[in-house]
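re: ur question from yesterday

yeah so i grabbed the chain u mentioned. its 355 aa long if i counted rite. heres the sequnce exactly as i have it in my notes:
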Amino acid sequence: MRDRIVLSLGVLAVVAAVSITAQTPAPKAKAAKTGTTKAAATGPRTAWGDPDLQGTWFVLYDEPLERSAANANKEFLTDQEVAEADAKKGINPGRNARAAEDTAQDVSGAYNAVFNSVLKTGKRTSMIIDPPNGRIPPLVAGANTAFAGFPGGGGGRAGRTGRGGGGLGLGNAPGQNDNPETVPQSPRCLGVPMPFLPLNTLFAQGTVMQIVQSPKSMGIYMEDDHAGGGNRIIYMDGRPHAPANLKFYLGDSRGHWEGNTLVIETTNFSQGFRGSNIETYKMIERITQVDAKNLRRQITFDDPKTWTRPWTVEIQMGRAPSDKHMIFDSACHEGNYGLIGVLAAARKEEQGEKK
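ran it thru and got these C-alpha coordinates back, copy pasting raw so excuse formatting
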Protein backbone atom coordinates (compact mmCIF):
# COMPACT_ATOMS: atom_id res chain seq x y z
CA MET A 1 0.00 0.00 0.00
CA ARG A 2 1.49 3.28 -0.96
CA ASP A 3 1.50 6.43 1.12
CA ARG A 4 0.10 9.71 -0.17
CA ILE A 5 0.25 13.55 0.37
CA VAL A 6 0.28 15.04 3.90
CA LEU A 7 -2.87 16.92 4.78
CA SER A 8 -2.50 19.32 7.68
CA LEU A 9 -5.20 20.05 10.22
CA GLY A 10 -5.09 23.63 9.06
CA VAL A 11 -5.93 22.70 5.47
CA LEU A 12 -8.91 20.62 6.51
CA ALA A 13 -10.08 23.39 8.83
CA VAL A 14 -10.13 25.80 5.89
CA VAL A 15 -11.96 23.26 3.76
CA ALA A 16 -14.52 22.76 6.50
CA ALA A 17 -15.09 26.50 6.71
CA VAL A 18 -15.92 26.86 3.04
CA SER A 19 -17.57 23.50 2.37
CA ILE A 20 -21.32 23.30 1.83
CA THR A 21 -21.71 19.55 2.20
CA ALA A 22 -24.08 17.97 4.75
CA GLN A 23 -25.82 14.66 5.71
CA THR A 24 -29.04 13.00 7.00
CA PRO A 25 -29.84 10.82 10.04
CA ALA A 26 -29.67 7.03 9.71
CA PRO A 27 -32.75 4.81 9.35
CA LYS A 28 -33.87 3.25 12.62
CA ALA A 29 -31.50 5.59 14.42
CA LYS A 30 -31.79 8.78 16.40
CA ALA A 31 -31.75 11.98 14.41
CA ALA A 32 -28.47 13.85 14.46
CA LYS A 33 -28.31 16.23 17.39
CA THR A 34 -25.85 18.55 19.01
CA GLY A 35 -23.21 16.77 21.02
CA THR A 36 -22.24 13.15 21.24
CA THR A 37 -24.11 10.10 22.44
CA LYS A 38 -22.10 9.35 25.55
CA ALA A 39 -21.58 5.68 26.20
CA ALA A 40 -19.21 3.52 28.13
CA ALA A 41 -16.33 3.58 25.70
CA THR A 42 -13.21 1.67 24.95
CA GLY A 43 -10.43 2.95 22.76
CA PRO A 44 -8.96 6.44 22.33
CA ARG A 45 -11.10 9.54 22.90
CA THR A 46 -10.76 13.12 21.72
CA ALA A 47 -10.26 15.97 24.19
CA TRP A 48 -14.02 16.63 24.02
CA GLY A 49 -14.96 13.00 24.65
CA ASP A 50 -15.82 11.55 21.22
CA PRO A 51 -14.27 8.34 19.87
CA ASP A 52 -11.02 9.30 18.16
CA LEU A 53 -10.92 8.04 14.56
CA GLN A 54 -8.23 10.46 13.43
CA GLY A 55 -5.43 9.23 11.25
CA THR A 56 -4.75 7.81 7.81
CA TRP A 57 -6.56 4.58 6.96
CA PHE A 58 -6.10 2.27 3.97
CA VAL A 59 -8.00 -0.70 2.57
CA LEU A 60 -6.47 -3.99 3.66
CA TYR A 61 -7.79 -6.54 1.17
CA ASP A 62 -8.72 -7.06 -2.45
CA GLU A 63 -12.35 -8.22 -2.52
CA PRO A 64 -14.95 -8.07 -5.33
CA LEU A 65 -18.02 -5.91 -4.89
CA GLU A 66 -20.41 -8.76 -5.73
CA ARG A 67 -20.12 -12.51 -5.17
CA SER A 68 -19.34 -14.51 -8.29
CA ALA A 69 -21.44 -17.41 -9.53
CA ALA A 70 -18.53 -19.71 -8.71
CA ASN A 71 -18.80 -18.69 -5.04
CA ALA A 72 -22.59 -18.70 -4.80
CA ASN A 73 -23.78 -19.41 -1.24
CA LYS A 74 -20.18 -19.14 -0.06
CA GLU A 75 -19.43 -16.14 2.15
CA PHE A 76 -15.74 -16.80 2.81
CA LEU A 77 -12.80 -18.33 0.96
CA THR A 78 -10.74 -21.00 2.63
CA ASP A 79 -7.17 -20.27 3.74
CA GLN A 80 -5.96 -22.45 0.89
CA GLU A 81 -8.00 -20.52 -1.68
CA VAL A 82 -6.66 -17.22 -0.35
CA ALA A 83 -3.09 -18.54 -0.52
CA GLU A 84 -3.59 -19.77 -4.07
CA ALA A 85 -5.03 -16.42 -5.18
CA ASP A 86 -2.12 -14.55 -3.61
CA ALA A 87 0.37 -16.93 -5.20
CA LYS A 88 -1.08 -16.15 -8.63
CA LYS A 89 -0.60 -12.44 -7.95
CA GLY A 90 3.00 -13.11 -7.06
CA ILE A 91 3.83 -14.96 -10.27
CA ASN A 92 1.83 -12.64 -12.53
CA PRO A 93 4.37 -10.85 -14.74
CA GLY A 94 2.35 -7.70 -14.22
CA ARG A 95 1.81 -4.84 -16.61
CA ASN A 96 5.50 -4.52 -17.43
CA ALA A 97 5.19 -7.47 -19.79
CA ARG A 98 5.03 -6.67 -23.50
CA ALA A 99 3.87 -9.21 -26.05
CA ALA A 100 4.24 -8.19 -29.68
CA GLU A 101 2.31 -11.24 -30.87
CA ASP A 102 -0.71 -10.49 -28.71
CA THR A 103 -2.16 -7.05 -29.31
CA ALA A 104 -4.42 -7.07 -26.27
CA GLN A 105 -1.61 -8.12 -23.96
CA ASP A 106 0.68 -5.56 -25.53
CA VAL A 107 -1.80 -2.78 -24.78
CA SER A 108 -2.43 -3.94 -21.21
CA GLY A 109 1.31 -4.16 -20.71
CA ALA A 110 1.77 -0.50 -21.57
CA TYR A 111 1.50 0.40 -17.89
CA ASN A 112 4.45 -0.02 -15.58
CA ALA A 113 3.88 -2.33 -12.63
CA VAL A 114 5.46 0.34 -10.45
CA PHE A 115 2.13 2.16 -10.61
CA ASN A 116 0.20 -0.84 -9.35
CA SER A 117 -0.83 -1.47 -5.75
CA VAL A 118 -1.32 -5.21 -5.28
CA LEU A 119 -3.33 -5.98 -2.14
CA LYS A 120 -3.64 -9.36 -0.50
CA THR A 121 -6.78 -11.35 -1.26
CA GLY A 122 -9.50 -10.99 1.36
CA LYS A 123 -11.42 -13.96 2.71
CA ARG A 124 -14.82 -12.46 1.92
CA THR A 125 -16.19 -13.48 -1.46
CA SER A 126 -17.87 -10.07 -1.79
CA MET A 127 -17.82 -6.64 -0.20
CA ILE A 128 -21.61 -6.90 -0.08
CA ILE A 129 -22.67 -8.43 3.23
CA ASP A 130 -26.40 -7.78 2.84
CA PRO A 131 -28.32 -9.28 1.06
CA PRO A 132 -26.80 -12.56 2.21
CA ASN A 133 -26.24 -13.71 -1.39
CA GLY A 134 -23.63 -10.98 -1.82
CA ARG A 135 -25.37 -9.45 -4.83
CA ILE A 136 -26.93 -6.06 -5.58
CA PRO A 137 -30.73 -6.45 -5.24
CA PRO A 138 -32.98 -6.51 -8.33
CA LEU A 139 -34.29 -3.27 -9.76
CA VAL A 140 -37.82 -2.09 -9.07
CA ALA A 141 -40.27 -1.61 -11.92
CA GLY A 142 -39.52 1.59 -13.79
CA ALA A 143 -35.94 1.91 -12.52
CA ASN A 144 -33.04 2.92 -14.74
CA THR A 145 -32.00 -0.27 -16.55
CA ALA A 146 -28.98 1.21 -18.35
CA PHE A 147 -26.65 -0.49 -15.86
CA ALA A 148 -28.13 -3.97 -16.02
CA GLY A 149 -25.61 -5.20 -18.57
CA PHE A 150 -22.56 -4.27 -16.55
CA PRO A 151 -20.94 -6.35 -13.79
CA GLY A 152 -22.32 -5.29 -10.45
CA GLY A 153 -25.26 -3.56 -12.05
CA GLY A 154 -23.11 -0.72 -13.35
CA GLY A 155 -19.64 0.36 -14.17
CA GLY A 156 -19.51 1.11 -17.89
CA ARG A 157 -18.46 4.36 -19.43
CA ALA A 158 -21.24 6.85 -19.94
CA GLY A 159 -22.26 7.41 -23.52
CA ARG A 160 -25.16 9.11 -25.22
CA THR A 161 -27.45 6.53 -23.65
CA GLY A 162 -26.15 7.46 -20.21
CA ARG A 163 -24.61 4.07 -19.52
CA GLY A 164 -22.26 4.69 -16.68
CA GLY A 165 -20.12 7.72 -16.26
CA GLY A 166 -16.94 6.05 -15.08
CA GLY A 167 -15.90 2.84 -13.40
CA LEU A 168 -18.16 3.63 -10.46
CA GLY A 169 -21.27 3.86 -12.59
CA LEU A 170 -21.71 7.55 -11.83
CA GLY A 171 -23.92 9.65 -14.04
CA ASN A 172 -26.95 8.28 -15.84
CA ALA A 173 -28.39 11.11 -17.90
CA PRO A 174 -28.83 10.54 -21.66
CA GLY A 175 -26.23 12.48 -23.62
CA GLN A 176 -24.16 13.27 -20.52
CA ASN A 177 -20.92 12.75 -22.41
CA ASP A 178 -21.91 14.93 -25.34
CA ASN A 179 -20.34 18.12 -24.01
CA PRO A 180 -17.37 18.99 -21.75
CA GLU A 181 -19.60 20.85 -19.28
CA THR A 182 -21.58 17.71 -18.44
CA VAL A 183 -18.97 14.93 -18.64
CA PRO A 184 -18.63 13.31 -15.17
CA GLN A 185 -15.77 14.37 -12.92
CA SER A 186 -13.73 11.17 -13.11
CA PRO A 187 -12.72 11.41 -16.80
CA ARG A 188 -11.85 15.08 -16.20
CA CYS A 189 -9.81 14.34 -13.07
CA LEU A 190 -11.83 16.79 -10.99
CA GLY A 191 -11.83 14.77 -7.79
CA VAL A 192 -12.94 11.64 -5.99
CA PRO A 193 -16.57 10.58 -6.48
CA MET A 194 -18.73 9.03 -3.79
CA PRO A 195 -19.23 6.43 -2.41
CA PHE A 196 -15.44 5.97 -2.64
CA LEU A 197 -15.35 2.18 -2.90
CA PRO A 198 -12.18 0.12 -3.57
CA LEU A 199 -13.44 -1.24 -6.89
CA ASN A 200 -10.01 -1.31 -8.56
CA THR A 201 -7.40 -1.84 -5.87
CA LEU A 202 -4.69 -2.57 -8.46
CA PHE A 203 -4.66 1.15 -9.18
CA ALA A 204 -5.25 2.06 -5.53
CA GLN A 205 -8.66 3.50 -6.35
CA GLY A 206 -10.79 4.14 -3.28
CA THR A 207 -8.21 2.70 -0.91
CA VAL A 208 -6.92 5.50 1.34
CA MET A 209 -8.48 8.27 3.42
CA GLN A 210 -7.49 10.59 6.26
CA ILE A 211 -9.85 11.59 9.09
CA VAL A 212 -9.59 14.81 11.10
CA GLN A 213 -12.07 15.67 13.88
CA SER A 214 -13.33 18.75 15.71
CA PRO A 215 -16.21 19.06 18.20
CA LYS A 216 -18.74 20.20 15.57
CA SER A 217 -17.48 18.70 12.31
CA MET A 218 -15.25 16.05 10.78
CA GLY A 219 -13.07 16.17 7.68
CA ILE A 220 -12.41 13.08 5.56
CA TYR A 221 -9.84 13.47 2.80
CA MET A 222 -10.03 10.83 0.08
CA GLU A 223 -7.33 10.11 -2.52
CA ASP A 224 -8.20 7.99 -5.52
CA ASP A 225 -5.36 7.42 -7.97
CA HIS A 226 -6.00 9.18 -11.28
CA ALA A 227 -9.31 10.73 -10.17
CA GLY A 228 -7.55 13.06 -7.73
CA GLY A 229 -8.53 13.88 -4.16
CA GLY A 230 -11.65 15.06 -2.41
CA ASN A 231 -12.58 16.60 0.94
CA ARG A 232 -15.76 15.58 2.70
CA ILE A 233 -17.08 17.60 5.61
CA ILE A 234 -19.50 15.89 7.99
CA TYR A 235 -21.27 18.29 10.32
CA MET A 236 -21.93 16.92 13.80
CA ASP A 237 -23.79 19.88 15.32
CA GLY A 238 -27.35 19.00 14.32
CA ARG A 239 -27.78 21.66 11.64
CA PRO A 240 -30.56 20.95 9.12
CA HIS A 241 -29.98 19.50 5.68
CA ALA A 242 -29.55 21.71 2.67
CA PRO A 243 -32.81 22.19 0.69
CA ALA A 244 -33.67 19.26 -1.58
CA ASN A 245 -33.15 21.35 -4.71
CA LEU A 246 -29.46 21.83 -3.88
CA LYS A 247 -27.24 19.01 -5.17
CA PHE A 248 -23.58 18.28 -4.37
CA TYR A 249 -21.00 16.05 -6.00
CA LEU A 250 -20.06 14.51 -2.63
CA GLY A 251 -23.60 14.76 -1.30
CA ASP A 252 -25.02 16.57 1.73
CA SER A 253 -23.77 14.98 4.96
CA ARG A 254 -24.73 14.81 8.64
CA GLY A 255 -23.26 12.62 11.34
CA HIS A 256 -23.83 11.53 14.91
CA TRP A 257 -22.42 8.96 17.31
CA GLU A 258 -24.07 5.72 18.35
CA GLY A 259 -21.78 4.57 21.10
CA ASN A 260 -18.36 4.13 19.46
CA THR A 261 -19.76 4.11 15.92
CA LEU A 262 -19.86 7.17 13.69
CA VAL A 263 -23.11 7.14 11.71
CA ILE A 264 -23.24 9.33 8.59
CA GLU A 265 -26.11 9.79 6.17
CA THR A 266 -25.63 11.48 2.82
CA THR A 267 -28.33 12.76 0.45
CA ASN A 268 -28.65 15.51 -2.19
CA PHE A 269 -26.24 13.87 -4.65
CA SER A 270 -25.76 15.59 -8.00
CA GLN A 271 -25.10 12.22 -9.66
CA GLY A 272 -26.64 8.84 -9.02
CA PHE A 273 -24.75 5.65 -8.21
CA ARG A 274 -25.32 2.61 -10.43
CA GLY A 275 -28.49 4.03 -11.89
CA SER A 276 -29.97 5.40 -8.66
CA ASN A 277 -32.47 8.25 -8.59
CA ILE A 278 -30.80 11.35 -7.11
CA GLU A 279 -34.08 12.52 -5.59
CA THR A 280 -34.53 9.40 -3.45
CA TYR A 281 -31.04 7.90 -3.18
CA LYS A 282 -29.21 8.09 0.15
CA MET A 283 -26.07 6.54 1.59
CA ILE A 284 -25.69 5.50 5.24
CA GLU A 285 -22.19 4.87 6.61
CA ARG A 286 -21.23 3.28 9.92
CA ILE A 287 -17.54 3.70 10.80
CA THR A 288 -16.16 1.90 13.85
CA GLN A 289 -12.60 1.60 15.13
CA VAL A 290 -12.30 -2.09 15.94
CA ASP A 291 -8.95 -1.72 17.70
CA ALA A 292 -5.86 0.49 17.57
CA LYS A 293 -4.94 -0.65 14.06
CA ASN A 294 -8.25 -1.56 12.41
CA LEU A 295 -11.29 0.35 11.16
CA ARG A 296 -14.57 -1.08 9.87
CA ARG A 297 -16.53 0.93 7.30
CA GLN A 298 -20.02 -0.23 6.40
CA ILE A 299 -22.08 1.54 3.75
CA THR A 300 -25.78 1.00 3.07
CA PHE A 301 -27.23 2.12 -0.28
CA ASP A 302 -30.93 2.92 -0.14
CA ASP A 303 -33.15 4.04 -3.01
CA PRO A 304 -36.74 2.72 -3.16
CA LYS A 305 -37.03 3.96 -6.76
CA THR A 306 -34.07 1.87 -7.90
CA TRP A 307 -33.57 -1.28 -5.79
CA THR A 308 -36.10 -3.64 -4.23
CA ARG A 309 -34.29 -3.33 -0.91
CA PRO A 310 -31.28 -1.53 0.64
CA TRP A 311 -27.90 -3.23 0.31
CA THR A 312 -24.76 -2.98 2.43
CA VAL A 313 -21.03 -3.36 1.85
CA GLU A 314 -18.27 -3.78 4.44
CA ILE A 315 -14.68 -2.59 4.01
CA GLN A 316 -11.82 -3.41 6.38
CA MET A 317 -9.18 -0.70 6.76
CA GLY A 318 -5.85 -0.50 8.57
CA ARG A 319 -4.08 2.45 10.17
CA ALA A 320 -0.99 3.93 8.52
CA PRO A 321 2.02 4.51 10.82
CA SER A 322 1.46 7.64 12.93
CA ASP A 323 5.00 8.86 12.33
CA LYS A 324 4.22 9.15 8.60
CA HIS A 325 0.45 9.63 8.13
CA MET A 326 1.20 10.65 4.55
CA ILE A 327 -0.88 10.42 1.41
CA PHE A 328 0.90 10.93 -1.90
CA ASP A 329 -0.91 13.26 -4.27
CA SER A 330 -1.59 11.42 -7.50
CA ALA A 331 -1.33 13.31 -10.78
CA CYS A 332 -4.21 12.52 -13.11
CA HIS A 333 -2.47 13.16 -16.42
CA GLU A 334 -0.58 15.73 -18.44
CA GLY A 335 -3.23 17.09 -20.77
CA ASN A 336 -6.77 15.71 -20.82
CA TYR A 337 -6.45 13.27 -23.71
CA GLY A 338 -9.33 11.16 -22.42
CA LEU A 339 -11.82 13.99 -22.76
CA ILE A 340 -10.79 14.53 -26.39
CA GLY A 341 -11.65 10.91 -27.15
CA VAL A 342 -14.97 11.07 -25.27
CA LEU A 343 -16.12 14.15 -27.18
CA ALA A 344 -14.88 12.79 -30.51
CA ALA A 345 -16.97 9.66 -29.94
CA ALA A 346 -20.04 11.78 -29.15
CA ARG A 347 -19.62 13.73 -32.41
CA LYS A 348 -19.23 10.43 -34.30
CA GLU A 349 -22.46 9.11 -32.78
CA GLU A 350 -24.25 12.30 -33.78
CA GLN A 351 -23.09 11.86 -37.37
CA GLY A 352 -24.38 8.30 -37.34
CA GLU A 353 -27.77 9.41 -36.04
CA LYS A 354 -28.11 11.93 -38.88
CA LYS A 355 -27.62 9.15 -41.42
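noticed a couple things. The radius of gyration is 21 Å. also The longest strand covers residues 282-291.
anyway ttyl
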